[in-house]
Amino acid sequence: MFDLAIAIAVLGATGAVPTAALDGLVVIGELTLDGGLRCVPGVLPMVMAAAARGVRHVVVPEPQAHEAAMVPGVEVLGMRSLAQVVAELRDEPVPEAAPVAAMSSSRLLAWRGAGRMDEVDLADLVGMEDTRFAVEVAAAGGHHLLLSGPKGSGKTSIAERIPGLLPDLTREEALELTAVHSLAGALEPGDGLRTRPPFASPHHDASTASLVGGGSGAVRPGEISRAHCGVLLLDEFPLFRADVINALRQPLESGDISVSRAQESVVLPARSIVVLAANPCPCGDYHADASVDRCKCREVQRRDYRRKVTGPITDRIDITRHLTAARPTARRDPLAVRESSAEVRERVTVARARQADRYADEAWRLNGHAPGPALATRWPLTPAAAALVDDQLWKGRLTRRGVTRVHRLAWTVADLAGVDQPGVTEAGVALRLRSGEPLLAATLRKAAG
Ligand SMILES: Nc1ncnc2c1ncn2[C@@H]1O[C@H](COP(=O)(O)OP(=O)(O)OP(=O)(O)O)[C@@H](O)[C@H]1O
Ligand SMILES: [Mg+2]
Question: Does residue 187 form part of some domain?
Fold first, then answer.
């Protein structure tokens, strides 16, 4: 990482390169034994950090020049060898050198290709009005979501479609997300800024390190950072290991993750919409309606399984939805709702603009990230709506944390409806979204326009 910088510093100290040329210069790269340069992970965040400190000139291995140049206001020199860098600094003719290989694949995380879900569309799914409304709210306000339902009820299908409901990333978000990819070694020469919200869906046997980041040696961002500004789906969530789930608690609240290694700890961005998907029982066939229940699990198995789906992690989830398998005939109904992702994205974008306006002077942009005390004092519900929510708290149906989450949801429901302050209607919808009760037909009719 610092090979080239150290070599240049030594040459500067011995007078082989003029020290004036090193003023305000940052050099990044490793050296091969014959003096060639080698690519390193994390060029983008390094150049971002350097630029933030006023550096205007950077030298990087040639294949990474494009990446470094994503940072505005920095002049980038892509070089192939130590001899080339020295000649450049001495203002002499630059010698020929063999091209630098792109990052070795052993350093690359297999992040390329996957992580984008723009090809799938909500229009592919029929029915599911209740869940459609819930994912629209999740997308608009940045709320976390738990989807439970039997096999084939569309949990995975609808979760995959959430990134497509989100607007393009802002320039700042795009730089942050691309920096994560850079650190992971998952940027290739010629890759541009990531401008679409990402999608990550780690397998349930994932390790804590692969999910939240870490590992020995260089810092490796985890899937939770890969999903920054997008969607992190934990499919078949009860099958994840308990320690992995627990590691998610902190980032779910704070939006970043601190990864500690032997000597230091590094904070990486990790603010996504987390979607947990779960079957109602281990076999996946349990149904509350006995006439269609085909579950073969024993009661004790079912209880164990359910305990995993209600613990501290689910208290941090905003929205719960119980899906039912659509009737096969409904799937062929040509008149069923088939609103497209683009149509929903338009409403989400408007609702997000309202939030950005309201929170213009704050450190957050979305209702889902607004701190509870700030909402309570500066953006309250109407008195009647607040009384409705408090009532649930007194009855023990809502925790304190739950009250804040309902408050945030009520704001998002209001922002989607173009209402200036959440009232009883919005709070009622928010309470249902939180508790898992089905939404009322009136709510869904209004949402559909
Ligand atoms: N509402 C729907 N409209 C159209 N197709 C649907 C709908 N729901 C489910 N499907 C289709 O049914 C299949 C199964 O859906 P999906 O994999 O999303 O279910 P799941 O709830 O994740 O199931 P599992 O518990 O087995 O993972 C998919 O091919 C999906 O396209
Ligand atoms: Mg599934």
Answer: yes
Structural domain includes residue 29: yes
Question: Does residue 360 lie in a domain region?
Answer: no
Q: In terms of Cα–Cα distance, which of 49, 150, 61 is closest to 107?
A: 61
Choose which residue among 157, 233, 324 to substitute to test ligand 1 binding: the one with the highest number of ligand atoms within 8 A of its C-beta: 157
Q: What DSSP assignment string belongs to 194-252?
A: --SPPEE---TT--HHHHHEE-SSS-EE-HHHHTTTSEEEETTGGGS-HHHHHTTHHHH
Q: Is residue 348 part of a domain?
A: no
Measured CA distances, 264 to 54, 68, 129, 214, 446 (Å): 25, 25, 48, 11, 52
Residue 344: count of CB within 10 angstroms of its CB: 25
221-247, pLDDT tens digit by residue? Answer: 899 999 999 999 999 888 888 888 888
Is 126 near ligand 1, meaning CB less than 6 Å away? yes
> What is the reported pTM?
0.86
Rounded to 5°, angle at Cα 223 from 221 and 229? 95
- pLDDT higher than threshold 90 for residue 332: no
